[in-house]
Amino acid sequence: FYYYSISTIEKNDRNKKKQIKKRINLRVISSLSSYISDSSVRFDKEPVFFIGHSFEFAVKHPELLRYYQFSDNYVLSKNREQNRFKIGIIDGPINLKHPELEDVLIEQSFFVNDYTENDIEHATSVAGVISAKNNSIGIKGILEDVFIINAVVLSNSRVEQVDLANAIRHCVEKSVDVINISIEIYEFSDDLLEAIDLANEAEIQIFMANGNGGFRKKLRSIEKPNKENLIFVGMLDRNDEESSSNMEFRKADIFELGENIISLSNESYKVYNGTSYSCAITTSKYIKKEAKYEK
């Protein structure tokens, strides 16, 4: 068995079809035994374990190891679903029956049960910006052929810290390439910070909407954790200037267009505004290697 590390590839080459060259002998880890003995595992070539994390991360978190088929022609991102990039969307539940999303590969996990129509619309509109199908109707999302992990945490437009933390851990377990959180978060519990750190160990970038808080005058303070992999996204208007509706009490790390964005509603289309959509655009550009930011 061999271990092929995604970290051996230059970041700029990660979306190209190149075979990973570096091969590292995989030390025996007891947790691998259940995967090795799994009769459902089939390999086209020599038996190979492809793990989408660093070796150090794999040793620390053996419960997250996954087996992958090896291909001579592709660098498998962190997933094996037809070499698609895997995007974690932590939000409300995406409407899987929307005509623009019916053919998009989406896996949903629910961390709340009492979500509303508004929560569904918010998640669906975010997903539309990222991945609405390029067909003969409606809009076209920025990315094609992605696999969305939809972790549902919104409940009446609110989110609990514990649910958000568990959703991030879920995305790490699913080996996503990037996490999009188009939700305003004002405080960060220790549990949530630990989940963000776990994602950082797995080299997973998190883009979070900085918030549309320019009008909120009663907020006395708002937290901005200094985490390497946590990027707060602010909003640009149609004049390419910082919008007056940006969060007044927390400076964003990066700004992206978020004004008059046409996207999916629950069953049709609407025009939206806000850092939620700036965040979705930034996440998509990150996958396309177009996002520019500094920490």
What are the SSEs and their pairings?
Elements: E1 2-5, E2 24-25, H1 33-36, E3 49-51, H2 55-60, E4 86-91, E5 105-110, H3 117-131, E6 147-152, H4 161-173, E7 178-181, H5 190-201, E8 205-209, E9 230-236, E10 254-257, E11 261-264, E12 269-272, H6 275-287
Parallel strand pairs: 1-3, 4-6, 4-7, 5-6, 7-8, 8-9, 9-10
Antiparallel strand pairs: 1-2, 11-12
Helix pairs in contact: 3-6, 4-5
**Tally of DSSP helical segments:** 6
| Widest β-sheet, arrangement of strands | 5-6-4-7-8-9-10
Q: Roughly how much helix do the residues carry, as a percent range?
A: 10-25%
Give the overall shape.
globular
Q: Helix-strand pattern, N to C?
A: EEHEHEEHEHEHEEEEEH
Relative strand content? 15-25%
Number of strands: 12
User: Which spans of ≥5 residues are poorly predicted at pLDDT below 50?
Assistant: 1-55, 63-80
Span of the ends, CA to CA: 38 Å
Radius of gyration: 19 Å
Briefly note the structural class of the backbone. Answer: alpha/beta
What do you see in this structure?
With 295 residues, the protein is α/β, with parallel strands linked by helices. It is 21% helix and 19% strand. The chain has helices spanning 33-36, 55-60, 117-131, 161-173, 190-201, 275-287, and strands at 2-5, 24-25, 49-51, 86-91, 105-110, 147-152, 178-181, 205-209, 230-236, 254-257, 261-264, 269-272. A seven-stranded parallel β-sheet has the order 5-6-4-7-8-9-10, with helices on both faces. Strands 2-1-3 form a three-stranded mixed β-sheet, with no helix packed on it. Strands 11-12 form a two-stranded antiparallel sheet. A hairpin with a 4-residue loop joins strand 11 (261-264) and strand 12 (269-272). The chain is globular. It starts with a strand and ends in an 8-residue tail after the last helix. Mean pLDDT is 76; it is low at 1-55 and 63-80.
